[in-house]
Write a structure and sequence with these properties.
The complex is a heterodimer of chains A (638) and B (371).
Chain A: H1 2-20, H2 27-44, H3 54-83, H4 91-95, E1 99-104, H5 110-119, E2 123-129, E3 132-139, H6 142-164, H7 167-174, E4 195-196, E5 203-210, E6 214-222, E7 225-244, E8 250-261, E9 267-273, E10 278-280, E11 283-292, E12 296-303, E13 311-316, E14 320-325, E15 328-338, E16 342-349, E17 352-359, E18 363-369, E19 375-381, E20 385-387, E21 390-398, E22 406-411, H8 419-428, H9 431-444, H10 450-482, H11 489-517, H12 529-542, E23 550-558, E24 561-569, H13 573-592, E25 596-602, E26 608-615, H14 620-636
Parallel strand pairs in A: 4-7
Antiparallel strand pairs in A: 1-26, 2-3, 3-25, 5-24, 6-7, 7-8, 8-9, 10-11, 11-24, 12-13, 12-23, 14-15, 15-18, 16-17, 18-19, 19-21, 20-21, 21-22, 25-26
Helix pairs in contact in A: 1-3, 3-6, 6-13, 9-10, 9-11, 10-11, 10-12, 11-12
Chain B: H1 2-29, H2 35-54, H3 56-76, H4 82-85, H5 87-93, H6 95-119, H7 122-153, H8 165-187, H9 193-214, H10 230-259, H11 270-302, H12 311-331, H13 338-361
Helix pairs in contact in B: 1-2, 2-3, 3-7, 5-6, 6-7, 6-9, 7-8, 8-9, 8-10, 9-10, 10-11, 10-13, 11-12, 12-13
Classes of the chains: A alpha+beta (638), B mainly alpha (371).
The complex binds protoporphyrin IX containing FE.
Chain lengths: 638, 371
């Protein structure tokens, strides 16, 4: 008993450690958290996967043994008690009970008393001692069996748990028969020591399947590495579907699977979802997770600071593309694609502007790495998103995962396309067109003399050039260099306003010329053009803070999803369930059934009746119960 | 006279009425229920009929809950807009309003229980009991109407309101007070309301903070893992456990006070307190055991294993071991007195951690009710 309690306490403490220290994280995270020294000690103690640690399993085994011993020691006595009526009791000991009553009776009929007791669910025995009558009765003796039920149930549950644990693997690992694999390698190259056979008693393995893929084995995570778990069938993912609520939260994940028996070649086709797994050949297949399965992306790479046309790029999620930019080799690493994104977007809802969760369409996530290995991370939405009543193409950039994305907001043109902006940035970067626009602008304004005109032309050219090279920042920097120190802040502000206006007017000029030359295409209509130009110029200026001035436009995609399946074989489950039923029964018996023993003794020739009651557990209710029984017997015998 | 007719009518026909309503529900809504849910519905009908038979006050409570819920549903006329337009809904019977009434009434009854404790006047005792009944009734109406409201948001959004921390806190208040009312009636002992209602009022405080600070009273659709009939049994069973353990802890407070000669004149006898603590813990223990087992069976269906050592599971085990130890000490060693009272108070801390702390500090599969 002591030992069992110690084991239970250890189990409790170990469990607490397991919840406080996050389990099964990458080992690097632990090293950062604890430092190398403590990391090593904790690893030796198995604290990163407590529940699979050797000592944890040992506790379970000790618990099983000690509880079994406990049962085997106590059960015989309990069973004997259960059967016995305790009929060897003597008058003296009867009178010694706390609940013992004596009273005179009129007529004594054993038959009547027995039938009364039977009616009240007592089991009754009648015996003649020294010519006197002894009636022995008892009820609630199931309570005694409660002990056996509960304690047996603990043994059964623990055994079930052990069956489903990885004790066998632990031993194989200790003896070197099996080895955890640390490197990624193709299935065919994994040695036998890295594979668990189909006959493995129990496991919880996982499979990640892209749509259309077939896999014939699963992966068992173990510490920092993995093992291959062979399975008696192959699984093909025909289709994976996510459904959403109208508010955007995910509603269901469904995998349409084709499971083909390796032995017979027979297949079954079934759709599984969360809470609706499929069991085949003792292996249960669960919908556990999902991710991108290598979606195909058709991209256009735009250089935001040049007039060059866009370059095509075709890629896939989890693939890398290379591109030379300004004599540097850049690697584009595509990491994720999401078809469905819920953001709180301002929507005009019944004449009221409201933030509403809305699907803003696909986005993709990628990193651009330079030759020295540094990377910036980008998140780009395919479709324009409404901000302040206008549509913008949003693309976020950050230097490290700890940062928030900073978004570049490119205004959509009349056709809700990014083309308008790209035309404008090309025009701005075309020196002949800019010169033409400046000349045109000057023509339209009146100057007193050539000098003034020259000065204005030079100024304008400088401002525009600065803007093209570095956005508003450069314009302001140049201004600080050119304007005399003593100029007041008001003067400076005036100058900035003038410069911004000049940039705006020249851009408008560029666009007007473009419109005249491309009459058939309506990209910049008359009425909303000023605001578009302002937003576009802001975006152009911001593009200098975009890390690398390459914008990836997602022209088209083919969404390929991958479904994360879990494969579980757990032969201990029926035992655990059986044990659970027994446990509930046992607790019920022990707590809610009260064992009562009752003796009624009439000595030969005596007019006195002795009624004694006993219970193994003293409770307040029992006092009342005892008095009630006494009174009823009094009534019967009167 | 009317009382008498009502009494007679309900006594004879309650189970029948419930059975008819159940049959109607099954006929009308069977396409929204799977076979297990139909079984759960029938099982609930049987349970409630039985409870109504052995506990007439419960029957009256149940009848009122049904009556007010139906009135409320009728007033909705199938549209959430009615909450703003209809006076009765807006101020009384819409789910939020009903729950707000509940949060107002529990603290009120706590106050009156204390007045009763000191004045020893039956008037206050009866008043407090009555208010607790009304608070419980209106709270249940709030939950049931919330259930209905969730279907008005969207047929696919509809679900039983035990899916997040806000909803289960309301449930906790209701179940705890119902359990307490049962003991109060059985033991004819109203003094302990002054203690039990403390924990309920604390929960009410949390609900209010959670509503006004975090806007947590919004109905959210269910994530896929929760879409199972298991939720309908696992969660309520757990909360009977939590509720009973909390009652035990609050009675232990009374026990410890009495033992330390505080409020001696006003508190019930020590052995009564001791007995009540034991009764609560044993009720709690059996429900908590069942709930944990049901949770395991559900986990085997949703997460791919009946036991994943997820923090919530693990803490449920710790709570369970704790009370198993308590019961051992009392039943086998025959221990009584202050050690067990302190232990049951400490048990409340462990239980609270399993209930709230895990959500606050630990992450895992059970992260449905994050703060
Ligand atoms: C967590 C698991 C356990 C639970 C829930 C549990 C429950 C109980 C309960 C409620 C009782 C009271 C029964 C009574 O007085 O008739 C009891 C009795 C007892 N338990 Fe446990 N128990 C557990 C584990 C153990 C273990 C592991 C041992 C021994 C190694 C043990 C030894 C005993 C003994 C000796 C009794 C007294 C039996 C009697 O004479 O009635 N228990 N148990």
């Amino acid at each position: 008993m002591r030992f069992a309690i110690t084991m239970f306490s250890l189990l409790g403490i170990a469990s607490i450690i397991g919840t406080v220290l996050k389990q099964n994280e990458p080992y690097n995270d632990y090293i950062i958290k604890f430092g190398q020294f403590w990391f090593n000690i904790f690893e030796k103690l198995g604290l990163y996967n407590v529940y699979q640690a050797f000592w944890f399993l040992l506790i379970l085994i000790f618990l099983i043994i000690s509880t079994s011993l406990c049962i085997s020691r106590n059960s015989p006595k309990i069973l004997k008690d259960y059967k016995s009526f305790q009929d060897r009791i003597r008058e003296k000991s009867l009178l010694a009970f706390k609940h013992s009553y004596q009273f005179k009776f009129e007529k004594f009929s054993t038959k009547k008393i027995i039938s009364f007791l039977n009616l009240n669910n007592y089991k009754v025995k009648h015996k003649v001692i020294d010519g006197g009558d002894l009636i022995i009765a008892k009820k609630g003796d199931l309570q005694k069996l409660g002990y056996i039920f509960t304690h047996l149930s603990i043994v059964i549950i623990s055994i079930g748990g052990l069956l489903d644990g990885n004790l066998v693997f632990k031993i194989q690992e200790l003896t070197g028969v099996k080895q955890i694999q640390l490197e990624d390698q193709p299935l065919s190259e994994i040695p036998k020591s890295g594979k668990m056979s189909e006959n493995n008693l129990s496991y919880r393995a996982s499979i990640l399947l892209s749509e259309g893929d077939t896999k014939t084995a699963a992966i068992l995570r173990a510490k920092e590495g993995y093992l291959v778990q062979e399975i008696p069938f192959s699984i093909t993912l025909k289709d994976f579907k996510i459904e959403h609520y109208s508010t955007g939260q995910p509603k269901s994940f469904k995998s349409n699977l084709l499971v083909t028996d390796k032995e017979t070649g027979k297949s079954i086709n079934k759709t599984i979802s969360v809470n609706k797994p499929l069991t085949y050949k003792g292996v249960t297949i669960y919908q556990a997770a999902f991710e991108d399965g290598g979606s195909k992306l058709d991209l256009l790479v735009w250089n935001l600071n040049s007039s060059q046309p866009a370059v095509q790029m075709n890629s896939e999620i989890f693939k890398n593309n290379e591109l030379t930019f300004e004599r540097q080799k850049l690697t584009f690493e595509f990491n994720d694609f999401r078809n469905f994104n819920i953001l709180d977007v301002i929507q005009n809802d019944e004449q009221k502007l409201k933030l509403k969760p809305t699907n803003v369409g696909p986005n993709f996530l990628y990193k651009v790495r330079n030759e020295s290995g540094q990377a910036k991370e980008y998140q780009t939405f395919q479709l324009p998103i409404i901000v302040d009543d206008k549509y913008f193409f949003m693309s976020g950039m950050r230097n490290s995962p700890q940062e928030e994305f900073k978004y570049l907001k490119i205004p959509a043109d009349h056709n809700l396309s990014i083309e308008g902006f790209m035309i404008l940035k090309s025009l701005l970067n075309d020196p002949t067109k800019v010169k033409y626009a400046i000349d045109n602008g000057i023509k339209q304004s009146a100057f007193k003399n050539i000098e003034q005109k020259k000065a204005f032309e030079l100024g304008t050219r400088n401002v525009i050039n600065a803007f093209i090279k570095g956005g508003y920042d450069f314009v302001i920097r140049d201004m600080d260099l050119n304007i005399p120190q003593e100029a007041s802040i008001i003067d400076k502000e005036k100058a900035i306003k003038t410069y911004i206006n000049i940039i705006f007017l020249i851009s408008q000029e560029l666009i007007n010329t473009y419109k005249e030359n491309n009459k058939e295409k309506i990209i910049f209509p008359e009425n909303d053009s000023p605001r578009f130009i302002q937003d576009a110029l802001t975006a152009y200026s911001d593009s200098f803070f975009y890390g690398i001035p390459l914008y990836l436009e997602l022209k088209d995609f083919k969404h390929v999803q991958a479904s994360g399946l879990q494969l579980t074989k757990s032969p201990g489950k029926p035992w655990v369930y059986l044990g659970s039923i027994l446990l509930v029964l046992g607790i019920f018996c022990m707590i809610y059934i009260q064992e009562i023993r009752l003796w009624i003794f009439k000595k030969k020739g005596s007019k006195n009746l002795i009624v004694s009651l006993a219970t193994n557990r003293d409770r307040l209710d029992f006092d009342k119960e005892a008095l009630k029984v006494r009174d009823q017997i009094k009534r019967i015998t009167n | 006279m009317i009382e008498k007719i009502k009494e007679k009518f309900l006594k004879s026909y309650f189970a029948l009425i419930l059975a008819v309503l159940t049959a109607y529900a099954i006929l009308k809504f069977n396409k929204f229920m799977d076979i297990y849910e139909i079984f759960i519905l029938i099982g609930s009908t049987i349970t409630f009929s039985w409870m109504a038979k052995v506990w007439p006050n419960f029957r009256d409570l149940f009848t009122s809950i049904l009556l007010f819920s139906f009135i409320s549903i009728f007033l909705y006329q199938g549209s959430l807009e009615q909450i703003e337009l209809n006076f009765v809904l807006k101020y009384f019977l819409a789910s939020q309003s009903a729950i707000m009434w509940m949060t107002a009434l529990y603290p009120l009854s706590l106050t009156i229980y204390w007045i009763h404790l000191f004045t020893k006047q039956d008037f206050y005792g009866n008043l407090a009991t009555r208010i607790t009944w009304i608070a419980t009734m209106i709270g249940f109406v709030g939950l049931l109407v919330r259930w209905y409201e969730s279907y008005l948001i969207g047929i696919d959004v509809g679900h039983i309101p035990v899916s997040n921390l806000y909803e289960v806190f309301v449930l906790f208040c209701l179940i705890t007070s119902l359990l307490y009312l049962h003991y109060e009636e059985k033991l004819k002992e109203k003094k302990l309301g002054a203690f039990v209602l403390i924990i309920i009022t604390a929960a009410v405080g949390f609900i209010l903070w959670y509503t006004f600070e975090k806007g947590a009273d919004q109905i959210q659709p269910l994530v896929p893992a929760l879409q199972s009939y298991w939720m309908k049994i696992h969660v309520p069973a757990n909360f009977i456990g939590y509720g009973a353990f909390s009652i035990a802890a609050m009675i232990s407070v009374a026990y410890l006070l009495k033992e330390k000669n505080i409020l001696v004149k006003y508190l019930p006898e020590l052995n009564i307190l001791d007995e009540m603590t034991y009764k609560s813990i044993s009720i709690g223990f059996i429900f908590f055991t069942i709930a944990t087992i049901l949770g395991a069976i559900w986990a085997a269906e949703a997460w791919g294993g009946y036991w994943s050592w997820d923090p919530k599971e693990t803490w449920a085990l710790i709570v369970w071991l704790n009370y198993a130890a308590w019961l051992h000490l009392r039943l086998i060693k025959g221990l009584r007195g202050s050690l067990l009272a302190w232990w049951s108070l400490a048990g409340l801390a462990v239980t609270t951690f399993a209930f709230l702390g895990v959500n606050l500090f630990l992450s895992g599969l059970h992260s449905y009710g994050e703060l």
